[in-house]
Amino acid sequence: MNAHMPYNRQTSLLYTAARVAKNITSILDPDELLQQTVDIICDEFGFYYAGVFLVDASGQWTVLRAGRGEPGRQMIAEGHKLAIGGNSMIGAAVQQQQARIALDVGEEAVFFKNPHLPYTRSEMALPLVVYGEAIGALTVQSTEEAAFTQDDIAALQAMADQLAIAIHNANLHRKNQALLRQAERRSRLLRAANQVGKQVTSILDLDELLPTMVNTICEAYGFYYAGIFLVDDSGEWAVLRAGYGKAGEAMLAEKHRLKIGGTSMIGAAIALGEARIALDVGEERVHFKNPHLPHTRSEMALPLIIGNKVLGAVTVQSVEERAFTQDDITTLQTMVDHLAVAIQNAYNIQALKEAHAALLRTKVYEALTTATTEAIHWIGNKALPITTSVARIQEDVQRGEVDFESLQEDLEMIAESARLIMEVKEQLIGQAREQQPRPCMLTDIVQSAAIQRKIPSEMLEIETEVNTPLGLADSTQLTRAIGNLLQNALEADATHIRVHVHPAAEKDYVAVDIHDDGKGIPPEVQEKVWTTFYSDKGPDHHGLGLTAALHIVTQLQGQLSLESTPGEGTTLYLLLPVAQHLAAEDISTGARYILLLDDDDTWASFFGSTIVSAGKVLTHRTQGTQIDPQADLILVDEFQYATPIEEILQALQESGVAHKTIILTTSLNVERMTTYMKHGVKDVLLKPYTLAEISRVARS
Amino acid sequence: MFTILLVDDERLVRRSLEKTLLRAGFDVITAENCVTGLAAYRTARDEENSIDLAVLDLNIPNFEGQPAPHAGLELLSKLREQEPNLKVIVLTAYDEVNKAKDAVQRGATAYFVKGRESGLVELIQQLISK
User: Fold this and answer.
1) pLDDT grade, residue A188 (50/70/90)?
2) CATH number (domain holding residue A45)
């Protein structure tokens, strides 16, 4: 029933038209626009019902998109639609693009008797036309017969025209928004694809790469879940190797796996080697109803393929139906293809590692076998002269006919064999002895080792770069190791040995390069030189020197390698860690006047400047055995070129100052120490290389 | 008197075994590798002082002068080419069955392991008397 009096009607129509126009310009959401329009029409005109139908995508139907009150809500819920050109007023109005009016609906042939609107007596259907195209129609219904005046029709058609334009604009706005969202999403996906591209080339560990991949996919696309399955060794199962979020964690804990070729999408994708997409998983026959992922409505399974081989598959799931766009599918497939390459690379690296490990086991076994065989030969050969000599001596003794000349020869053979055996024992003891690393001046260790091995000074050239740090080493062991290396040079007929001590290219390492101009090592022998008991220098060599040096250096966390050219010589490269955190120390206490008997070398220079700068008096004697008895403390370097230690010991005894003498050595040795102590010296100490060590020596 | 050719690169082994064999009443010619071993055999033969038995270390420098694990067998083959009936004892520190088999197949009369020398003289006497 129309609540307004006729004289107010024109005013009301204008007012209503203005409100609709305001809505049209302010509301961009089409659903809200339509609902507000029908409500305003009914409220202002007092009509029984108003509704808006829009043409669907097929162009065959008009679908109710907004309706007044409960009848409208119910009809929308039922998906109420009317055929275009059918027998409804709406269908006719859209088809003909003309308003249809039934002032007494009982007289209108095309009226559809709608059970939701039983009181309708007048109805008007106004087409919504934009640019000559009918996009829908507006229905207005009244409970009064002949309810609509010409003014109503004109005013409402004007509103309908405005509404049609507004709907068109809102649709355009919605399309623009969708395009914008699509552009943003595409940009995000491209960034994600770029990120994945970097990850697959930089991460070789699958346990790191695969979780990163599922996280990237879910975060970039906003998907509910992503998981990566890999085919197991049996080829029968796809095992989950990475899963997104809590669901992923739970399934990984359960060791979730799917049968290949089974009813799951993953199983099917792997078996067929092709993508499977279910836009509503309820409709997908092969979908696996996973209790961990109850909200999945769309799922995509993309196989990981390299050549003809399927490595596994990636599942991507969304809570929305029909969630995957063509962009999604294209970019995801690209990512998955990259991932497949990365997985294959990881497999190849793993296979390479396993092959390397197997090779290493074989090599170790071969090395052990070779070492054992060589040891057996060596021991057998060294023992034979002893046993045969002993047998002869015993025979002579039993017969009571001792040939002294023969006896002496037998004893010499026994002694020599025993000496060789004892040398081996010494090398083995060196390796077994516990290391006591301390800061060491490597130049000094090299020089001491050279003197100990009786390498002439004119044959040895040591160059030390400035700012070369101290190395961290057990000086006793390192002297033995470097001595072995120098000995090898000597036995290779070298005439010159050049040693270069310098900061290593490797951070926190110090390097010692030992080059000789000897005969070099043939390439086929270079592989064997590190083998225990291997020697190509004849039966008088035990073949342990280089092996022992390697062992000692390795224990010191260092490295030892060699390069050799037959006829040109050999270079050994020794790397040792740098000694860090050298503490300052007060060395002003202890002996004031110190006499040092040593060569004029790097260590003596360092020691002298340190002592003098501490306010002490130092006399450094580089030649002869002249002893100043006034000295508080006499320090003697055990290994020096200028004067043999034996001569110095004798002079010390004769001068009566042995009791205030300390022998300094890079390499402590029980037998030598005992000898020195028997000469009455005060002590035998390791050579000091730091302020703290110098302080201890000065206070001794 | 029987003459023994003793080839071993270990100086002390060579000398000690030589002494033992001399004391047992044999003439002993020594050599330290394949080249000198073969040369010693030929020299003795040319001087009509034929070798009755050879004791060859398995692990000696080969005919190229390089240390080789089985060079004694190379010398064995060469000596057998010179004198197919020559009695040869292969001396080794390592008693490996396959090497012993190889030695026998090449014509070695016996295979003797170092460290068990007490039976060597008896073995030589036994082989020579056959």
Assistant:
1) confident
2) 3.30.450.40
> Each residue of B30-63: pLDDT tens digit?
999 999 999 999 999 988 888 999 999 988 999 9
Shared-domain flag, residues A280 and A269: yes
The length of chain A is 700
Q: Residue A617 and residue A619: Cα distance in Å, rounded?
A: 7
Residue A21 clears pLDDT 90, i.e. is over it = no
Is the CB of residue A434 less than 8 Å from the CB of residue A543?
Answer: no
d(CA B115, CA A382): 10
Q: Which domain holds residue A617?
A: 593-698
CA nearest A411: which of B31, B48, B19? B19
Contact (CB<8Å) A383/B118:
no
DSSP state of A236: S
Cβ <8 Å between A384 and B17: yes
Interface ipTM: 0.79
Q: How far, in Å, CA of B37 to CA of B30, rounded?
A: 8
- Residue of chain B whose Cα is closest to the Cα of A417: B12
Domain ends where: A577, A612, A644? A577
The full length of chain B comes to 130
Instruction: Tell me which fold the domain B3-129 belongs to.
Output: Rossmann fold (3.40.50)
Is 0.80 surpassed by the pTM of this model?
no
- Cross-chain CB nearest to B115 (options A380, A389, A417): A380
In the predicted structure, residue A5 carries a pLDDT above the cut 50: no
Neighbours of A564 (CB within 10 A): 21
pLDDT at position A148: 80
Cα B8 to Cα B15: distance, rounded to the nearest angstrom: 9
Chain B residues near residue A380 by CB distance under 8 angstroms = 92-94, 113-115
Q: What gap in Å lies between CA A191 and CA A405, rounded to an integer?
A: 94
CB A666, CB A687: distance < 8 Å: yes
